[in-house]
Amino acid sequence: MPFKVRCKLISFTGDPERFPCHFDYKIGAEFTYDGEKFEGKICNGLLKNMAPVLWNTIFYGPGDYERMVYIYSGLSARDPSMKKYDGVGFRPLKKSPEGADPKYLRSISAEPPKSLVKRTRGFVCDDTRTGAYFSCEPIALADGGDMKTHYNRAMSILEKIKNNPGMTVDEILNKFTKWEQEEIYPPIYQLNVSLMLDEMAIVNYIELRDGRAYPKNLPT
C-alpha cells in the first residue's frame, strides 16, 4: 500500500550562516507527494539524493532502518591487534572520541541502545557548504494517480472496521462477498489485508491489538 509522504527541512549539516541557502529554505519548510503530484517548493539540488529515499518511503514506509545491525554495534577505533578476533582490526569505544562533532554521532551512539532504534528516513542537498537535511516520512495513504485503486480498497476495509471495531483479518474478509473479494482490483485475501492493516496502523488510521483492528484517527 503506497504512502503519501512529507519531506521536511529539519537541519543544516553545513554552515548556513557563512554559506546561506540559495533557495532560501528555512527550517520547517516542507513538501509532499501523494502518488501523483508534489505540493511545495523543491530545490533542484535535492533531486539526486531525494529520489531513492522518496521511493523507499512511498513503498516501504518508515521501516527497515531498525533492522540494520551495525547501528547497534556502537562506536569503534582502529586497532590492528584485534584483527585476530574481529577479522578486520577494530575495537569498541566506551565513549565518543575526544573533540568529536556531535552532528556526526546522531546515527550511532557509544551507549548500547535499550530498544530498536527508530530512525526517520532523510536526505541532504548536494551543496555541502549548506547541507539542507530533510526528513521523509509517511503521513497518509497515497491517493493520487494509479495509487487510487489501492487507496480505495483500503478505504473500503477501513469502513468495515469503522462499523465493526475489533475485527480480525478473517472477519474483515467475511464482510465482503466473494465477488467483492476476487473481482475488484486489487483482489483481497488474508496476506494483503494484513499488510493493509499494518500500513493503516502506521499512519494512525487504526490501532491493532491482539490481531484485531480498531478505528483511530480516520481520514477526512
Number of domains: 3
Principal-axes geometry comes out as: globular
Give the % helix: 25-40%
Structural class by sheet pairing and helices: alpha+beta
**Strand segment count:** 9
Fold and architecture overview:
This protein is an alpha+beta fold. The protein has three domains: 3-62 and 120-141, no CATH class; 72-117, no CATH class; 145-215, Arc Repressor Mutant, subunit A, CATH 1.10.10. It contains six helices and nine strands. It has helices at 47-60, 83-86, 148-163, 169-173, 178-182, 190-202; strands spanning 3-12, 30-33, 38-39, 76-78, 90-92, 121-124, 132-141, 206-209, 212-215. Strands 3-2-1-7-6 form a five-stranded antiparallel beta sheet. A two-stranded antiparallel sheet has the order 4-5. A hairpin with a 7-residue loop joins strand 6 (121-124) and strand 7. The chain is globular, with a radius of gyration of 22 Å. The chain starts with a strand and ends in a 5-residue tail after the last strand.
Key features of this structure:
220 residues; alpha+beta; Arc Repressor Mutant, subunit A; two-stranded antiparallel sheet; 6 helices; 9 strands; 20% strand
